[in-house]
Amino acid sequence: MAVSNRSKKVIKGIQVSREEFLKAKPVRHPGSEWTEDEKGLHVRVPRNQTLWFRIFSNLLPMARERRILLDEQGALVWSLCDGEHQVKQIAKKLSEKYNMRVPDAESALDLYLVYLSKGGLVGFVLPESARKRYHRSTLKS
């Protein structure tokens, strides 16, 4: 059975199938801190302090951390990005809580996790099949 490009994802340079992505376990940035108030969940993640960041931060005002405000749905996803829950399990919880079809929850979650990942707020523990493929490809290089 052929797999279309739409069902493939690339996580940190590793191409994964849709099934592998749904089995991946999102995990919060280890340096993240969060507080909750009436506005939502406030998440703070320190920026990577590269040499260029340190040079330019002396010349220009630059934030030393990324801040994001999560609404109720975002806070639920954030709480489940603990490295224990798979993407498909998080989508199922979203579908149950917000009365959505599971495929719709998976699609929305997919976009949201990409957003959080690009911001450096979450990473992924990939399923064994993707990790093995990654290790084989690095040995060949």
> What gap, in angstroms, lies between the N and C termini?
29 Å
Instruction: Describe the strand arrangement of the main beta sheet, using strand numbers.
Output: 4-5-6
Order of helices and strands: EEHEEEHEHHHEH
Work out the helix count. 6
Into how many domains do the coordinates divide? 1
Calculate the mean pLDDT score and round it.
80
Oligomeric category: single chain
User: How many β-strand runs?
Assistant: 7
- CATH-derived topology: Arc Repressor Mutant, subunit A
Strand content: 15-25%
Low-confidence stretches: 1-6
The CATH class is identified as Mainly Alpha
Structural class: alpha+beta
By CATH, the superfamily comes out as Coenzyme PQQ synthesis protein D (PqqD)
The proportion of residues forming helix, as a percent range, comes to 40-55%
Second CATH tier, the architecture: Orthogonal Bundle
Draw up the topology in text.
Layout: E1 8-11, E2 14-17, H1 18-23, E3 25-28, E4 33-37, E5 40-46, H2 51-59, E6 65-70, H3 72-80, H4 87-97, H5 102-118, E7 122-125, H6 128-140
Helix pairs in contact: 4-5
Question: Could you describe the 3D structure shown?
Answer:
By secondary structure, the chain is α+β, with helices and mostly antiparallel strands. The chain has one domain: Arc Repressor Mutant, subunit A (Orthogonal Bundle). It has six helices and seven strands; from the N terminus they run ββαβββαβαααβα. It has helices at residues 18-23, 51-59, 72-80, 87-97, 102-118, 128-140; strands at 8-11, 14-17, 25-28, 33-37, 40-46, 65-70, 122-125. The strands form three sheets. Strands 4-5-6 form a three-stranded antiparallel beta sheet. A two-stranded antiparallel ribbon has the order 1-2. Strands 3-7 form a two-stranded antiparallel sheet. β4 and β5 (40-46) form a beta hairpin. α4 packs across α5 (102-118). The radius of gyration is 17 Å and the shape is globular. 18% of the residues are buried. Residues 1-6 have low confidence and may be disordered.
